[in-house]
Amino acid sequence: MSLKGCIDLHCHTTASDGSLSPRELVRKAARLGLEAVAITDHDTIAGVDEGMHAGRDYGIEVVPGVEISTGIDTFTPHLLGYFIDPASAPLREALDRMKQYRDERNPRLIARLNELGIPITLEQVRRQAGGELIGRPHFARVLVNLGAAKTVQDAFDRYLGSAGSAYIQKKRMPADEAVRAILDGRGAPVLAHPFTLTRHGADLENILKPLLDAGLKGLEVYYPDHTEEETHTFQRLADRLGLVKTGGSDFHGSAKPEIKLGTGLGGDWCIKVNILPALRSLVV
Ligand code: AMP
Ligand code: FE
Ligand code: FE
Ligand code: ZN
């Protein structure tokens, strides 16, 4: 089945916690017949240049992007940035700060796991990560390899998740600051997978308020985990707030094997290519 007329605006690569390199991701997208693919790694744009080059080689549009993990109160919204300028100094500075937050947390997480009797080293996790970004999913895979957890999910449940015995909170960038960093990088800021905020109606709008004030431009309405009802609710919300409705699979390759590039959970799911001009018009 060709995915002509479809795009995927949410994909991870080995630059963060995906299993395909940027080039492999773009090649796969082109082979599937997708008309565009966005590279949206967690807190890094390290995969963007390689992906853009691959886009030229394989004849598919590659949207330079990023997904920034943020915090507001107890909520942890993820902010997608599209058509960002990878050379932007203020955006790079913001992402460097995000890396510092990780670099502060990761050794503490190792120390905590060691205290629990698990002989894990930062070097092992670094090797597992491969790229510059080291996140909990990489810790989880090493814990599985060491036999300390049965699966990645088990590693989160027992150790790494917020209820786990080795949970160490990392410093979070305020969500409105991330919106501004994306705007500074000449990108379009979009709230990712709004269902993860687990709030609706006025409660959700209260969370969105500072983001809208900072210049939020879009809402990721189409997402594999959204129920049909949630999709409709988020569509209406986006329309009412004047936000562009975007969508993507959150592809991570074999790191999240149930999610397929372009089609999410499968079937005839398709993010329509006509979203792209609407998104692009926000940044020109
Ligand atoms: P980090 O940014 O290093 O704190 O890692 C966050 C990433 O860990 C998220 O993007 C998820 O992919 C993953 N993650 C967080 N919580 C869980 C969980 N309970 N189960 C599985 N994966 C999780
Ligand atoms: Fe991830
Ligand atoms: Fe996310
Ligand atoms: Zn994602």
Structure description:
The chain has 284 residues and is of the alpha/beta class. Helix content is 42%, strand content 14%. The chain is built from ten helices and nine strands. It has helices at residues 22-32, 48-58, 89-115, 122-129, 136-145, 152-160, 175-184, 201-214, 228-241, 275-280, and strands spanning 6-8, 36-39, 61-71, 78-82, 173-174, 188-191, 218-222, 244-247, 271-272. Strands 1, 2, 3, 4, 5, 6, 7, 8 and 9 form a nine-stranded mixed beta sheet that branches. Helix 1 (22-32) runs parallel beside helix 2, helix 4 crosses helix 5 (136-145) and helix 5 crosses helix 6 (152-160). The protein is globular and about 55 Å long. The two termini are 34 Å apart. The mean pLDDT is 96. The site of one fe (iii) ion (FE) has 4 residues, from loops.
